[in-house]
Structure formats: C-alpha cells, structure tokens
Amino acid sequence: MDQQQFQKIVDEKNPKVPYFMNIIKAFIVGGIICTIGQLITFFYMRFFPFTEATAGNPTVATLVFIAMILTGTGIYKKIAQVGGAGSAVPVTGFGNAVISAAIEHRSEGYVLGVGGNMFKLAGSVILFGVLSAFVVALIKTILVNIGVISW
Amino acid sequence: MGPVEKDSAFADSFDEVLSLETEKEETHEQAHTRMIEKACHWAAKKNHTQVDKVDVLIGGDLINQLSPTNFAARSLAVPLLGVFSACASSMEAVIIGSLLLESGNARTVLAGASSHHQAVEKQFRYPLEYGAQKPKTAQWTVTGAGFSLLEKDIKNAPVVTHATIGKVVDSYQTNPLHMGAAMASAARDTIERHLKNTNSKMADFDVIMTGDLGNIGISILKEMFQDENTGVVLQDAGAQFYGNDTFFNAGASGAGCSATVFFGQIYDQLKKGFFKRVLLVATGALLSPLTFQQGETIPCIAHAIECRMEKRG
Known about the structure:
The complex is a heterodimer. Chain A folds into two domains: about 5-120, no CATH class; about 125-150. Helix content of chain A is about 75%, strand content about 0%. Chain A has helices at about 5-15, 20-45, 55-70, 75-85, 85-90, 90-105, 110-115, 125-145. Chain B has two domains: about 5-150, Stage V sporulation protein AD (Peroxisomal Thiolase, Chain A, domain 1); about 160-310, 3-Layer(aba) Sandwich (Peroxisomal Thiolase, Chain A, domain 1). Helix content of chain B is about 35%, strand content about 20%. Chain B has helices at about 30-45, 65-75, 90-100, 115-125, 180-195, 215-225, 235-240, 255-270, 290-295, and strands at about 55-60, 80, 110-115, 140, 145-150, 160-165, 170, 205-210, 235, 250-255, 275-285, 300-310. In chain B, the strands form three sheets. In chain B, strands 6, 7, 8, 9, 11 and 12 form a six-stranded mixed beta sheet that branches. Chain B has a four-stranded mixed beta sheet with strand order 2-1-3-5, sandwiched between helices. A two-stranded parallel sheet of chain B has the order 4-10. In chain B, helix 1 (about 30-45) crosses helix 2 (about 65-75) and helix 5 (about 180-195) crosses helix 6 (about 215-225). Chain B is globular. The interface of A and B includes residues 7, 15, 17 and 96 of A.
C-alpha cells in the first residue's frame, strides 16, 4: 500500500470537523464572556469614578481574577471544550493560560517552576500583542503626520 | 490504575485502583513511580514470589529519561533494563524478557510498562487546566501500570511462542492529536510480517489486539486489511478501554493502556482457556514535543507477541 492510498483511507475515516457548530458555540461562549465584561465595565463606571476610557483596566483585572478561580476549580477547561476560540480569545483565555501553567509547574518550586513557566503559553501573546500594538501605532503616527487622519 | 480508570471496560481485571491521581504523594511523577512499584509487587504476589527474587525487571514509561521506572527500580532494588518504544514498551519488555529466559540467562523476569495521565500531559501537551479544545481524534492517556512475571516451563499458564519486532514506520502524519492514523501503518506492517513469518492467517487467531489505535485508528487499520476477514478478530484495547464515553474522544492511549489490558483481561482470558491463540500488538508513536514543533512527522513502531494457551495438564 503506498502513501497516497493510505492517506485516502485516513481522510475517509477522519471524523468531519463540525466547523459550523463550532463557530456558533464559540460565538455564544465568547459573546457571554464579553457581555459579562461589559456589565463589569458599567459597574465600575456607575459605582466608581471611572470613565469609559479608564474602566478597561479594572474590568480586565476582574475578568482575569474570575478566570483564575474557574481555572483553579477545573471549570474553565470544561467551558473551553465547548467554547473553543470563544473562550481562548478573550482576556479570560489569557488568564487561563497563565494560571494553568503556574499551577502545573508548582511542583518545580516558585522561582524556576512557577516563575519560569508561568508565561510559557501566554508569553507569545504578550510578545506579539506588544509588537502589533507598536506597528499599528507607528502606522497611525505616520498617517497623522502626513495629514490623512487626525488623532 | 488511576481513579478515572475505575469505570473502564477492563476494570474487572485490575488488581488495584488508586483513589487519587497523586496517591498521597506530592507530585504526579512520584505517584507514577509508586504505581509501578505496586504493579510489580502485585505481579510477584500473584505468582507466589517476591519482587526481590526476580532476576531482572524490564520496564518503560513515557516520561523523560524513564525516570518513574528508574526510580521504582531504586526502591524495588532489582536489576533493571529500561526500555523505550513509547506505548509499545510493554511488548518490547516481554520480547527481551522471553529471550533472556529462552537463552537461560534468567529464570524470572518482570516485564511491563506504565503511563500516568497527568505526568504525560505535562510533558507532551498543555498544562492540565489549560482550556484547549480537544478534537474528536484525541485520545486520553491512561493512568496505569501493567507488569507480568515471566518464567520458563510453568504449567497451566499462557506461553509466548513467537514475537515480531517492529520496524519504525513513518506514514507522514503530523497531527499529535491524531496518533491513531500515524500508528495504524506500523501495526499493519508488524501484523503482516508476523502472519507471513508464522505462515498463518488472521482467522487462526482468537483475537489480534492492537494497543492504542483508538476508534479511528482501528477503523483505518481494518480498512487497510479489507481483503481479509478482520471482523471480530482485529480489536483495539484503546478503543474499548473507556467504553463509548465520548468524553475520551477517540479512546485511550499510553503505555499503561496496552500493558494493563494485555496483562489483565487478555491474560485472564487465556488462562481460563477462553482464548487459545492471540496476537498482541502494542503500538507506539515515537514523537516528542520537540520533534513535533520542529516540523517532523510522527514515526511509529509496533511490537507483537503471540501467546498461546496449551491444553491443561
């Protein structure tokens, strides 16, 4: 049996990935997380002296805190099995990546274990997040300076 | 076995099920070691002997540098041969053990392999609590250790009559969450060579059981043998391990999967005389997180042993 025949059997036997259902589920789960985030933002604006521009930081911190509790209790991975990208893309997914790695490497000690591995998964989010923010800011600065748009 | 495995389809043949994955130890890796020690003691006890009377322990696991097996041998204080062919380690151990017995260089050999779900996840995949969606092709690494005691000329016990050492077969699969497809080719190669070398047909066997191809892997293998009547003869331990529970997706995997099923259920069935002739094909995917990230394909290996139960008396 050659490689082509084998690959044909494999492709035949592979279960179809339910892309459409996955997208719907991701949309619903991601949507719920973002709605909760929006409610938290309103909460900070209503009861604390935050504006729409400044309420983002405490909202992110609160969501990460919730993600931390859900990760520690094992609930987040169950949400993620249903939600897929819907639970991975929001900031709660970032929190989950950091916290799960911290828990996992607790047995190797605080410095080299928790400290050294905490950003193993989330490190690239930070790196490419900062990089893309820099590139976007650079483009906008150039466009403003040549007078195409204004701040 | 771990607590998750309590509900396995093969649970009847397990000697001991732990109540916690950590088994009162501090880390999963320590629990892994403890489980190997316990399995060795069970294997010896059931044969009315003690571990320290054994000439050599041959074992393997999936963790870097085989540390759980090495650490278990430290406290068991027996001569050790550590072996690695991923999830096919148990059969590699039995093959080497049988040859040692046959050549007269050993009288009693303990052979087997083990895996621990949490320890394996940590090494090969993501942190346990990380929310990564698992596809339907993914398999669940079994927490379990299976060891068997091999001796020469025992009456009323299954006998290893033939063995086929696996070739490393690469079918250019690259998805580490779909190892059934990668391992099917290796299983096919080994089974084909075994049948040819022993001049036998599939129908001559009561069962030909592969280690951990999973639901999808075994259906790929059956498709590859479509010219033969594979029907009920060709089975897979991994596909049956957790029953039809969809939580485990394509089924079970890990060195502990084939080892516990082959040395548990299949051994019992042979001993009872229910099976007369079986072919046990443990399959292993020889990948590491490093090779996968460097874009390498997943080469696989399958070792087979043929066991027969001679007439009683």
